[in-house]
Amino acid sequence: MTDILMPALSPTMEEGTLSKWLVKAGDTVSAGDVIAEIETDKATMEVEAVDEGQIEEILIEAGTEGVKVNTPIARLAGGDNAAKAPAKADAPAAQPAVVADKPTETTPEAPAKPELRDPEFPEGTPMVKITVRDALRDAMAEEMRRDEKVFLMGEEVAQYQGAYKVSRGLLEEFGDRRVIDTPITEMGFAGVGAGAAMAGLKPIIEFMTFNFAMQAIDHILNSSAKTLYMSGGQIKSSIVYRGPNGAAARVGAQHSQDYSAWYANVPGLKVVAPYDAADAKGLLKAAIRDPNPVVFLEHEMMYGLEFEIPDVEDFVLPIGKAKIQREGKDVTIVAHSRMVGFALKAADQLAAEGIDAEVVNLRTLRPLDTDTVIASVKKTNRLVTVEEGWGPCGVGAEIAARVTADAFDDLDAPPARVHQEDVPMPYAANLEALTVPSVEKIIAAVKQVSYK
Amino acid sequence: MARAAKASDGTQGSNSTPSVNRNTSKDDLLKYYREMLLIRRFEERAGQLYGMGLIGGFCHLYIGQEAVAVGMEAASIDGDQVITGYRDHGHMLAAGMDPKEVMAELTGRIGGSSKGKGGSMHMFDIETGFFGGHGIVGAQVSLGTGLAFADFYKQNGNVSYTYFGDGAANQGQVYESFNMAKLWKLPVVYVIENNEYAMGTSLARASATTELYMRGASFGIPGEQVDGMDVFAVYEAGLRASEHARSGNGPYILEMKTYRYRGHSMSDPAKYRTKEEVDDVKKNRDPIDHIKTMIEQAGVTEDELKVIDNEIKAIVLEAVEFAQTSPEPDPSELYTDVYLEA
Prior knowledge:
The complex is a heterodimer.
Chain A: E1 2-5, E2 15-21, E3 28-29, E4 34-39, E5 44-48, E6 53-58, E7 64-68, E8 72-78, E9 88-89, E10 127-131, H1 132-146, E11 150-154, H2 170-174, E12 179-181, H3 186-198, E13 202-206, H4 217-225, H5 227-230, E14 240-244, H6 260-264, E15 270-272, H7 277-289, E16 294-298, E17 306-310, E18 323-326, E19 331-335, H8 339-352, E20 357-361, E21 364-366, H9 370-380, E22 383-390, H10 395-406, E23 416-420, H11 429-435, H12 439-449
Parallel strand pairs in A: 11-12, 11-13, 13-14, 14-16, 15-16, 19-20, 19-22, 22-23
Antiparallel strand pairs in A: 1-8, 2-4, 2-7, 3-6, 4-5, 5-9, 6-8, 10-17, 15-21, 18-20
Chain B: E1 3-5, H1 26-51, H2 66-74, E2 81-84, H3 89-95, H4 99-106, E3 130-133, H5 139-154, E4 160-165, H6 172-183, E5 188-194, E6 197-198, E7 201-202, H7 203-206, E8 223-227, H8 231-249, E9 252-257, H9 275-284, H10 287-297, H11 302-325
Parallel strand pairs in B: 2-3, 2-4, 4-5, 5-9, 8-9
Antiparallel strand pairs in B: 1-8, 6-7
């Protein structure tokens, strides 16, 4: 007898909806038979039987939502060779779930305590819950309705609805003139986008991940960032280069890198790294409207998370302004993108130990809102920076340098940096957990600068 | 002497005929002569200013290749775009940019077309549709394809003339661009200026196949090899290519067989070719001598030509004067043009 388990259909899937059974108790199945359909936030996928045998019992009814990966969903009365393997999903990246291998503390996505009201939201603004993924989609759709010159181009953005389903529904609404599937040709389509921007269009260039944008970085820097200057102000490049950046889960060194510091180094670019759904929507709309080239660094692990955003007609956030995500008086933790959630979780745990941490969500890396960071440090006198990228010459290094230069006398301790260990991303689950920033590492750094 | 590449979709460029005996109006002849001579005299002076230390960094002269830029320009219409690599002075002059602004950019002065912040390889002019001036070999091919994408998106009937050399023809993004241009039928004419040397490496030493007009064959892009030293052959091939691209058939490749008389840049000792080879081209294939012969056959007198020569000389000297008297950019310009106000 073998349990058929809820499969993980992508590297980041933690749960899904068992939408449909294609077999019932008593049916005989062979390896490869499609037995069920599972819906994740990204897609509907078929589940195949791995073993031969007779379905003895359906354990999870069709239509059940939120079924955790590795939950037994059916029982198979098997033949001799029935192994204790989960059903294999017909997914390119199907892997056994890995999330359970890690201590849950290392992968927080939402703070336990309610956050501060965003000063950008007027008092009494009605709020609505939305995933980061849909917030990004809505931002693009609203701007495409607003401006005919805006179009979306990239791999799988149209018919496939986005490799991470960010562009879901856009092809239907805007057609294939404005939502364009490209060949796998990053340097080429980044250059086409850069050229179209020079001619006055407003391209949104989606990279399936920023790892692949390395093939195209010449156009981002040499063709987009520098052109206004090289032309003495004649040629503007209103273009957004966007896609997921940073570490996903268990995808190894070439698919897990944070490029924040790389782009934030370059004059002529604006670099935005949203944390939650409000950041994602408000800042992407601002990025599309901006007359300058914007690198917009999203995070795959955040796409499926829900947050509240203001339910207003045209929600735009300013580029270049950080947000105090949590007020505190004892230490300033500066973070961006997914690390803001880690910092908030660390702050919650530190509160229980009597340390009141302030969390600054940078939102934008270039121009960097040094004023907000320094004002916070002047209040707390201690600084911890958190980023997914490597430490040397990183975002934290830049912030520490600016704070020591401009608020040296306000510091009661040398700044501490939390970042990825100085190695390529390992694949093994335990090594991966060791190399990335964690709540524990943030707490340790806070205690270090607090001499506790 | 044009040869046509058979494309897999059956389209094919037609052969151009030698231009020597063609009936051409005197006005056309003089116009082309004037434009080509302007480029040559301008570049000679630029070389001189470089030697005097007034132009810094890299300076790639267009001498010998004048017929390409001038002939193609004549085949274009208002609103069409031009984009090229670092050997760009000739294209800018052919596009109609002010020689004073181009020369002052070379000397790094505020009166330069990029206020002195771009230099030889980075000049632009929206008004004449000149989109640079790009220093990364091959990058302009993707960018030029993007200009064509914008034409296609706007349905404005314009064409992007995207120039690159025999050296850039081996860059990967050229083929990424060919693929998309043909896939989406973008109005782009790829003009390969084959001057036989990529810096110091001859075409034969760098390319597995040297018939560059065939390079689009696997994408179904028609191509033609054209005598790039004959401005009329260039013009006629340019018309065919433009018509193809403008009427919705997608990209077209023109391989211009041309030659640069000077080194790759000013600091090139040119040990990779013989003096005899260069002299032979100058003597037997020079594009300006070629049109001069035609002009004489058309009955233009020596005195009439002299008038043009003097006019061009005056224009270039005025540019040289401007490039030396226009001040350097004010230090406050250092931080302008980095970002536009959002």
